[in-house]
Here is the input.
Amino acid sequence: MTDLSMANASARSPLDVTTIRQDFPILAQQVNGKPLVYLDNGASAQKPAAVLDAMERYYREMHSNVHRGAHTLGDRATSAFEGARETVRNYLNAASTREIIWTRGTTEAINLVANGLTAQLGAGDEILISHMEHHANIVPWQMLAQRSGATLKVIAITPEGELDLDSFEQQLSERTKVLALTHVSNALGTINPVAELVARAKAAGAITLLDGAQAVPHFRPDVQALDCDFYAFSAHKLFGPTGIGVLYGREQRLEALPPYQFGGEMIERVTFEKSTWNALPYKFEAGTPAIAEAVGLGAAINYLNGLDRAAVEAAEHALISRAHELADSVPGMAIIGTARNKAAVMSFKIDGLHPSDIGTLLDQQGIAIRTGHHCAMPLMDFYGVPGTARASFAFYNTLDEVEQLFTALRKIQRLFV
Amino acid sequence: MTATEDQFRNNPLGKDVTLDDVFDAFEFLDDWEERYAYIIDLGKQLPAFPDNERTEENYVHGCQSQVWLTHFQDECDSKLYLMIDSDAMIVRGLAAIILVALNGKTPRDLLTTDIDELFERLDLFRHISPTRGNGLRAMVGKIRDIAAQQVA
Here is the structure.
């Protein structure tokens, strides 16, 4: 969230959250006798009716396999499916749809790259990640290091939850073959200065991958401006369906990777002696893809494109600012992750309360948050906590819901006195 | 020192606090806040868990909170006595209810006790259902394994 976008937003009309909430049918329900307050958007975001309708319409009117049929339904399915790819390309500002690979999600996207780089790395090479990564952006690199003989290096973080840029500079060298960083930390909300770090890594000759899973729900990334080689995200965190995600890859980098899985769709010609591979992006899309899910993701992005994104960012900024403000008034409450530049995510702990107690007792009051280690155990170790409670906001959340969260937290504290 | 026999036998849960007490309390307490305050209070009655029993063997995996479980069996009447610890207060309270139901029973009696049904009756089933990652289910599974070993 840049200062510029905030300035723009203040000149516009604010986001009409009341109307927007009507687009998300799941939000209008009671949980444990209370109106649902959904603050677990970082784990998975809810879906607007436009996504549900697009998927149902796809199955009712145009389903068939893609790229195969010599018939009308096949044409319709293929056109909806490839149309979604173009929508994603446009959203990321990628140069070509050849650079947009469908995967099952961020995790598979990162695994695809890490697997494909095995032959390009060897002893003496280094893979640079950070201390705030999700396990999905740690373990595939750890395994790549084991397979290839390369070494995994870790950028330190500050107590506020920002990347330690000195640590980055110290560890970046001509030995660095890969830099894999999260754009936005899932557990802390920190927005990392990835464009600068990608530029430094690129100058050192490294391949760069950004984990955008937690970034795309909050703002629109521009992969050409970021200048990264790979960018990964999941549809379900972007208000789209589960089971599908995207790997953006710079064309020349994708060409240099071997296929990830083998089977139908990804081949050009097969004999029992040898096979040759299909062109990008199909080389990485073995088997029948998640067609309806691709269509659903396209619909999610179209829905987002129809919103005033600057107003969305301003609304989210207001939510997180108010949450931080209120947190100061709760005795014993500490926010984990206080980066200067952060998305609408609040990880916290409260003295004397285990995160799971907080989660259980908020649920009792209709409030959904995430508790636990957030698939970032090294980060939890850094903060010396077993886990945190995390409220993660989306543009459909209201300031009133932020107030309700804190009213509920104070009620919980009274239970333990 | 490991937990002494007395520590196991003197556990008030299942002895001084009975299932009837828990049911009475739940009937009397009508909103969720009072019920959870009671659950938290039950958790405070768990006897102190000896530090040296916090071993890998006694650790209950699959929990968000840290949970330990140890047991002692009376050689004469074969009754099983359990001690449970957790760093989460709600889990401690729910563990206390499990102890009220199971502590000091013979392995056979223990295995025929329907914990799911008990939690249904208390309207706490969601806490013990397989969809919750709080480890209550793993805890009950471990207790039943211990009992099953004694019966076999």
